[in-house]
Design a protein that fits this description.
two-stranded antiparallel ribbon, seven-stranded mixed beta sheet, alpha+beta
Length: 193
């Protein structure tokens, strides 16, 4: 976020259940969020429907129930040593990427996800064997969902965790997601010397 000149603020899990706190944000980036005092789903859903934009990342290290389970099901952990592969090219998030581009997940296990039957979603990426290959057909790695006036990108691949702890392999997809959710304000402004 810093390299893209975006302000960031940490909020605590219990604040995600407070509609007044959420009103102060245009975009939320949530990695493995869990409720600590009641459910966060009603406040998050209302915030999204009113125009909020969020990235929610759940993966094999997730503790507690995943958020927004009315929209997305988590189907379980992916097999060991999988990566993600871009499977959609006509969505604004993936236009700068090519179908077949492999996103290195550095052997961190993700969670297969699938939209609920009544939910419209676009599959952006699927899990695949380490290094590429045919997508695994059990579920998706990343979904884009319209929610009322807002937008949600729900990811079962640990993109932000990989970027933070393992290196830039997941940055192309994560940067495209950030740019999309931030409406173009996430352009890289600082570069390594």
């Amino acid at each position: 976020l810093v390299s893209r000149g975006l302000p960031c603020e940490r909020i605590f899990p219990w604040e995600l259940a407070d509609p007044e706190v959420l009103k102060g944000f245009d975009v939320l980036l949530l990695s493995s969020p869990t409720a600590t005092r009641g459910s966060i789903d009603p406040a998050l859903m209302a915030w999204l429907q009113a125009g909020g934009r969020a990235y929610v990342e759940v993966w094999a290290g997730q503790q507690g129930p995943p958020p927004l389970s009315a929209l997305v099901s988590t189907l379980g952990n992916v097999p060991n040593q999988t990566d993600a592969i871009i499977t959609q090219s006509d969505h604004p998030i993936t236009r700068s990427l090519s179908p077949g581009d492999v996103i290195d997940l550095f052997h961190l296990n993700g969670s297969m996800i699938r939209p609920k039957r009544s939910v419209q979603a676009t599959v952006l990426a699927q899990f695949c064997p380490d290094g590429g290959g045919q997508p695994l057909q059990y579920g998706a790695a990343a979904l884009a969902l319209p929610v009322g006036e807002g937008e949600l990108v729900y990811c079962g691949a640990p993109l932000s965790f990989c970027l933070f702890h393992r290196g830039p392999g997941s940055e192309p997809l994560l940067a495209a997601i950030l740019d999309y959710l931030c409406r173009g304000r996430a352009a890289r402004r600082l570069t390594p010397g």
